[in-house]
Amino acid sequence: MTTTQPLLRRTLAVATALALAPPTLAQQPQTPGAATLDQVVVTGTRARDRTVLNSPVPVDIITREDLQRTGSVNNELGQALQTLLPSFNFPRQSNSGNADHIRSAQLRGMSPDQVLVLVNGKRRHTTSVVFQESKIAKGTSPVDFNTIPISAVKRIEVLRDGAGAQYGSDAIAGVINIILDDSAGGAASITYGLHHTDFGPTDQTITDGHNVAADLSYGWNFGDSGFLRLGAEYKDRGFTNRAGFDTLPFFEQQTPDNQALIGQRNFRPGDPAVEDVLLWFNAEHAVGSSAEAYAFATYNDRESVGAAFFRYPDSSANVKSIFPNGFRPETLGDLSDFSGAFGVRGFFGEWGYDASITYGNNELETGLQRSLNASLGEASPTDFRLGDFEFEQITFNADVVREYAIDGVSGPLTLAAGVEFRDEGFKTTAGDEASIALGPVPGAPGGAQAGPGLRPEDAVDISRQVRAIYGELSAEFTEQLFANVAARYEDYSDFGDTFNAKGSLRYEFAPGWAIRGAGSTNFRAPSLSQVGFSRTTTSFGDGQELTRVQLIPSTSVIGQALGLEPLENETANSWSIGLTSAPAPGLTASLDFFRITVDDRITLSERFQSDALTDFIESATGLPGVVAVNFFTNAVDTKTRGAELVIAYERPLADGTLRLTGAATYNKTSIRNIRATPQTLQNLGLSPELVGVEERNTLTTASPRHRQIVSATWTNPRWTFLTRLTQHGSVERIFNFGGGFEPQQRNGNELQLDLEGSYRPIERLSLTLGASNVTDNFPDPSTDDINFFGNLPFDIISPIGSNGAYYYARVSLSF
Questions:
Q1: pLDDT surpasses 90 at 311
Q2: Which of 24, 219, 535, 751 is most exposed, with minimal Cβ within 10 Å?
Q3: Do residues 785 and 734 make contact, with C-beta atoms less than 8 angstroms apart?
Q4: Nearest to 425 by CA among 536, 298, 527
């Protein structure tokens, strides 16, 4: 499969899905605020009678009402999940290239690409981008949660356990299953919010980040034949700026024009400006008396503008006649994301079946404005196209399930089996010529500043095919004992096959008290972007000779000459044991301990550079001037250990209902082993350290080891009041500036207080006011070693962020 006609395929997928979804009956909506502890879950087991309380593995349920009460900035789904789930981390990148336009998430402190995302139980495609300049997601291509509108969500089930034997690749840390809304009737809301903060580094009061989010949806029902619900969202968010006063770096020219900028806010760390349009639908339709066709789709069009580092007036990177006062390049992202599925499910005799096809496509066009290519002099443009990224995925599933009544067994024995065929494609397209050109101006850097673009020789168009078969067996052997086993075999056209298995059980040893545990093997296939992505930066070296710095695929000509091994899948073992209890009416609690070991974890290598390397590559491949290389490699073995606690209590209070919840997580990742540098590189006198200090920091201490969330919600037919207190754990940032200079920055624990109140003057109208981080708390200031001469007063990886307090108002209407 290639990815040459995404628009045609997207159009055909939408047309087919719509054809299968005429207006029909919606299921009855869940009562707002209804308890979810006894709600049946569909994630983590094919048995039909498992709930949150009696599941053999930990599963969280997040309702639509939960999401709406998070005060998420600009209705971001990922931000809402971080607010509600201690084990979910959603850092805000800044001045980080493509990571400014697509945010990534972590579960249980693992890498962003080690969590599997489902929509209505079907595998969600990942992004097309390979993050190179980010911290947490560097080298990964995870799912973009913000392509899914909050208004489309009925509930979210979060399986906090390895599930590769059930769902395949990526489910090492767990599975997040997003269930789309299927209710009848209409809903609309509009939210306006902004950041307002007393910014200590500049002693200013700043109001920015103005945003508006509006959504509208409607569902129809007709008898018992099915449903159709569709909706749209529009979101517009302004940028935030948390720059400090510039003190002018010592390595810049100390000219009058440069020095005139001292004491100004020349940089712009903070959120990018973003405009989103999101569309979605979810539908079912009866087919005969024992089957139903279903279809659903989401679409997101996003335009975003981020910021890069400032270029000073008297700098070799500037052309003073174009930007006499210097310039700050702005990065551009134009995202198009589509996912659609249709299928048929029903019963054939005693067997239930579900056959479906799912299509996903993610495209990002990247560019720059307010930039230039200094080597072109006054002929340089100021706008550039840097290149395009595209990922496409088509998945076919066929599943069957049957329940058997067995003598002597308390509940039914459930047998499930299925097959899956998946076709994936990854494609990159070169940027425009000016974004990579080396012009005639001597001593000036080539390529677009804050770029450069992808070169034609780096463009790639690759694909893979995946075949899988699985089986699962579960039974409630007694009223106290439930057990589940699963196995899965997958074969990949590009690197081979893998077999994984899982077993889990739950035993209720006393009324309301149970132990549960699970053990599994899991895996993650290397993404096609890690397999095939290539990027080259060129410049003129000594004597105006062309030099290249390259990120190379391990299977490239250079990679093979250096003895690099092709990427293989990551393999993992996951173990968990927990205790659940319901000791009193309205009170529930669970405590789970887990351990995840991952072998052959994929990371980016150190950058290797020497004259001997340049000479070797030229002699072995005929490519001159390659001065440095790095690459993806199965280099690291890790161990992650942790514990998760969830407590909930609900009772009537003062003509209303009071709900108290507490949740806490702790995880610690350590490195068990790092592979040695390939012998060919060692023979050239290069370092035996294959993975550097920055990448080791990313894996172990750059995400919070713990987070605690305590909330209280009181509601009655007229009023709802919410108070939520979050403690974000500490994080650590380590830099490698070369020459052995490796400064560290520790951001300590931080408290965040959120408040929200809603009033319903009539049954269908709700008016809401709220504030996130109402105490205007900030992380620890960055040290002088890493604040880039006063310009970056706070580090971007702190989970509390550096935007300060956020205030919002919302009007919601149902009809």
A1: yes
A2: 751
A3: no
A4: 527
Backbone phi, then psi, for 550, in 5-degree steps?
Answer: -130, 135
Nearest CA among 522, 675, 554 for reference residue 170: 522
Place of tokens 């093979």: 560
Contact criterion met (CB below 8 Å) for 734 and 694: yes
Chain mean position to CA 594: 22
Q: Which residues contact 547 (CB under 8 A, 6 or more apart)?
A: 538, 539, 540, 541, 625, 626, 627
- Read off the pLDDT of each residue in 407-412 and give the average, rounded to a whole number: 85
Amino acid identity of 764?
R
Do strands 546-551 and 626-630 pair parallel, antiparallel, or not at all (unpaired)? Answer: parallel
Helix (H, G, I), strand (E, B) or coil at 60: strand
Q: Quick check: 195 and 803 in contact, CB under 8 A?
A: yes
Whether the CB-CB separation of 60 and 176 falls below 8 Å is answered with no
Nearest 5 degrees, angle CA 171-CA 174-CA 178? 100
Distance CA 680, CA 107 (A): 37
Q: Which residue type sits at 316?
A: S
Tens digits of residue pLDDT in 715-757? 999 999 999 999 999 999 998 888 889 999 999 999 999 999 9
Q: How far apart are CA 763 and CA 165, in angstroms?
A: 46
DSSP 568: -
Mean pLDDT of 252-267: 97
Q: Range with the lowest mean pLDDT among 86-95, 204-213, 443-452, 550-559? A: 86-95
Reading the block at residue 102, the tokens are 């697509």
Nearest residue to 400 (alpha-carbon basis) of 347, 453, 450, 321: 347
Distance separating alpha carbons of residues 487 and 261, to the nearest angstrom: 63
By CB atoms closer than 10 A (0-12, 13-18, 19+), residue 483 is middle
| Pair 407, 377: CB distance under 8 Å | no
AA identity, residue 390: E
**Which SS3 state, helix, strand or coil, does residue 42 take?**
coil
- The CA R_g of the chain, rounded to the nearest whole Å, is 27
* Two tokens, residue 737: 């500036």
Q: What is the phi/psi pair of residue 572, to 5°? A: -140, 150
- For 701, the token pair is 């201490």
